[in-house]
Amino acid sequence: MNAPGPDLIETSLYEVRRKIHPRAVSGLFARWRVIMVVLTQLVFYGMPWLQWNGRQAVLFDLAARKFYLFGLVLWPQDVIYLAVLLVISALALFLFTAVAGRLFCGYACPQTVYTEIFMWIERKVEGDRIARIRLDGAPWSPRKIRLKATKHLLWVAIALWTGFTFVGYFSPIRDLGGSVMTLTTGPWEGFWMLFYAIATWGNAGFLREQVCKYMCPYARFQSVMVDKDTYVVTYDTGRGEPRRGRARSADRQALGIGDCVDCSICVQVCPTGIDIRDGLQYECIGCGACIDACDQVMDKMRYPRGLIRYTSERAMVSKLSPAAARRRLLRPRVVLYASLWMVLCAGLLTALAMRSPLKVDVLRDRQSLGREVDGQWIENVYRLQVSNTTEQPMRLAIEAGSGTLAGVQVDGDMSAVALAPLSNRLLPLRVRVPIEKAGQGTHPVEFAIHARVLREGGSAAAVRPGNDVVVRQSSTFIVPAGL
After folding, report:
1. Which residue in 21, 111, 169, 250 is a FRET match for 302, CA 20 to 30 A apart?
2. Would you say residue 287 has pLDDT above 80?
């Protein structure tokens, strides 16, 4: 094997991570980020503590296989609603991205939100960008240990509370709090609290922009959802170039330079460390921090704002007015996404509103297809699996009928069957037909199950005014040959 030549250069396939120290910034987009952080965390941390009808308002009880969403209780049979909700969420993401880029990433993504919280703590403890850079570069000292330890203690406290809240959506949070205080949590509860806490601490405290750049798939396929009319964070090259530093009193027209003073503050405030002046990059999360920073510099230089702004590529290149750029937002893909999204939302709400509180499955007894009873009847045996999806007791009345058989009746008194709240019950059911009216073969039979919800006092009340809920299920009635 020949020895490598003197001009051979070894190149790494992986970029060595450079720690980013984002600079604090204020402005319109910074205020919106703060608002979104507060709103999302009020919902996340506060929702498990809300009560509804004496129980937790939002609880995904995996052990009991029930999802409680305020007054709505979803069962495993209702998984179709979850599937539709996921499709609606995906379409909403496509719609928002086609209109305004990565709005979700910049303002509502949990990675972005917790990174903002952790960076706020870091700035309060260690100082702003320059102070943090100096602290990281300084040798270890009692002051550095104190500051780093304080920061991580606060990070760990928030991470543990986040893990506790997360598990509180799947296990009643008030009971979970008691078990945590007495150190009696179950193994799975303890595991997931620690797992989620460590994930929050690691992702928001250490990985930060690496999650957005390398772990999140959304950054990779966002390019297929944006076009020249999508609003994104954009640098006005025609106005800003050529860039160069200058005194505020300098005449940029006489110098032949653009508005960009090459201060690099837009890079310093970027949480992913990119230079927006190099054009739109997949690492950009659309947070708008560079817009706030650049506007402040333009104010100091007494230049017009908007060197970096939220607009479309077409508006930037064609010098469109803001109104003209907004009119171009309504284009075929946006109309399609919005129409599908509204249709699915309307369909989901309609389905939930019309959802029957009673679930019924009819199963035939396969051990006995049909039998003669007392020389007078032909009898088939069924099992009815009934589920009360409400939080009130029910009273059921069960009837059977057939279009091809006369005299079909249900054996026994099935006119006042009790069904407890949020319960399943397996009801054996014998259906009889007079032997003289039973023609050989297979006949369709239909079961009508009337359900009436009972009030707390025990009195019956119709679910809909003047009507009971009626669920109909079809099956077959078999008359064997030779009977």
Report:
1. 21
2. yes
